[in-house]
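Friendly challenge for the regulars: who can give me the structure tokens for this chain first? No prize, just bragging rights.
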Amino acid sequence: MPDDKLKGWNYLPEVPLKTSPFFTWPLNPLEMAKWLWNSWFLITEKLIFLGISFACYVWFQPPLEDMKTLEIGWLALIYMRNILLTLIVAGSLHLWFYTWSAQGQKLKFDPRPLMINGKQFTLGGQVRDNMVWTLGTGVLIWTAFEAVCFWALANGYMRLITFEADPVWFVAIFFLIPIWESFYFYLIHRLLHVPFLYRHVHSLHHRNINVGPWSGMSMHPVEQAIFLGSVFIHFLIGAHPVHILFHLQYYFLTAITTHTGFQGLLINDRNRLSLGTFHHQMHHRYFECNYGSLEIPWDKWFGSFHDGTVEANEKMQARRRKMMG
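First reply, four minutes later:
Bragging rights claimed.
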């Protein structure tokens, strides 16, 4: 690998990594439109999960009237739905990338395989450990938060937004959820890197230095609750049941897709679906950089941005040396 490229990686995207053009000056309307199009339209994670949330609402969602009381019937239904969604998304991605090795090392950031054994994994192996935390406490907390929101909507404790009554706000909420995620995630992520919380909570997620699909929601239950707790913003702004579905499915399932360890899904040697970001992959390896996402450039503003270049890597190492004395 040339000296002007970071060493130790199997695949590097085009660097320096770019953040959202909505926060650069002067504003470039063409770049802004391109960013929005690439983030949402044609075949994207956001559009796929939006479609899944509407499908779940139409075919697998109990009537709001039935959710006025917390009953085992509808609670079990949404729990099983969430288990099935997790198994389909994480399971199929794991099969494609790791069991079948359908695209080999193409677009894979880290050249190393997932760990079969490792002392840091309490359940004897990276994938098994990740699956237990994801399917165990992760889906349970996801379901519990959905249940609270649906119950609140049914009983009038959360404002119900309908397309008929307020079409603009109904549509706008879908676009605002990922923006809120970018804002919220940076703040809680920096909090989780406070030494006490890192040691007792966040370090479980960071067992995954090299990530796979099951790594995304492999977190301590406290972190899972904090992360998914972003949905409670709807007590302030209101929601329709499909907003709650999209919000939590987007948070939970994109955590899975962005931790595949691959830049995207190749079909006939073309990247048909962008998945993991090198930006977050570097966080798992280097720890002290890229706490947020590329949507809102918090890391740039607070000096923790690693753009994938050798120069940025040297600056990060200098920060580390300064912090250590």
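The radius of gyration is 20 Å. The beta strands are 264-267, 270-274. Your move, everyone else.
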